[in-house]
Amino acid sequence: xxxxxxxxxxxxxxxxxxxxxxxxxxxxxxxxxxxxxxxxxxxxxxxxxxxxxxxxxxxxxxxxxxxxxxxxxxxxxxxxxxxxxxxxxxxxxxxxxxxxxxxxxxxxxxxxxxxxxxxxxxxxxxxxxxxxxxxxxxxxxxxxxxxxxxxxxxxxxxxxxxxxxxxxxxxxxxxxxxxxxxxxxxxxxxxxxxxxxxxxxxxxxxxxxxxxxxxxxxxxxxxxxxxxxxxxxxxxxxxxxxxxxxxxxxxxxxxxxxxxxxxxxxxxxxxxxxxxxxxxxxxxxxxxxxxxxxxxxxxxxxxxxxxxxxxxxxxxxxxxxxxxxxxxxxxxxx
Length: 334
Fold this sequence. Notes:
By secondary structure, this protein is an alpha/beta fold. It is 30% helix and 25% strand.
C-alpha cells in the first residue's frame, strides 16, 4: 500500500472547527505541466475561513481542501526527494495538506534569502496591498488615501507601502491602542471615527473600505468628488450603499477581489508583482509579522481557536509535520 499523508478537508459548510476533518491521503498524481510541492507552512487567514462557512457555496465543489497560501519545497515525483527549490503554494490546490500540485506556468520561485515565515504569508495581504497601490488606484506622491479597519494586518502593510511611495495614509481606528504601531509603520494620520469628517479638509483622493455598511459610507463622504472608493473587506457584515457612493457622492466605486485580478493578470505581470515584494522584503522596506504560533495539521482545532482570539499578533501557521514530531503544538517559531 502506498504511503499516506495528512490533509484537512471539509465536505459540508459550517463552523470550521466542526466541519473540518483530518484525513490521510495518498500523494496526488501529476498531470502534464504540473509540479509537486511538499508543504512547509500555511497560515490561517480570514479569507481561508469564509468559504468553509459557505459564503461562496455556489462555486465550491465539495469535498475541498482549504488554504489559499503558504510555502513548500518542490519534490521529485519519482523519488519523492526534495529538489531544494522552494515555491509558493498559490494557484494550485488548497495549502492545508502535505502535498500540493502546481501549474508549472504559474509557479512562483522563492529566493534563497527570503525566509519561510515571510514567504508563507506574502500572497493574500501583501500582494493585495501592492496591486491596489500600483495598479488599481491612480495615486501619486502627496495624495491622501483613507483606510478603515485600522486593527487589521492590511492596515500595517498599507502604512509601510504608502510611506514608500510618498502617499499620505490616514487610518480610521476604533481602538486608539493601534495608533503607535500604525504611525511607526508609516501612517500619516491615525484617527478615530468621529474625527473622520475633518478629513474632508485634506481632499482625500481615494478610500479603501474594509468594513462596509455605515462605516464605509462615512469613509466615502471624506473623499473628494471624482475620487475612488474601493471595497476590500466586509468586517461589519453589511455591504456599503453603492447607490449613495456613486450617485450622491460622485465617486468611482469598485470591488477588489484578488482572485479576479489573478484570473486576468498575465503570467509576467503576476511574476513581476511577487518579485517586487521579494525585493522590498530583502531591502527591509517591508516587514511582516512573525507567526504567533505553529501547529501541526492534526491540531487544527486548537490552531483555529487560537486564530480566533482577539489581539493575536501575527498569523497562526499550520504545518504537515508528523504527529509524533509536533506533539507540543502551538510552539513559537524559531
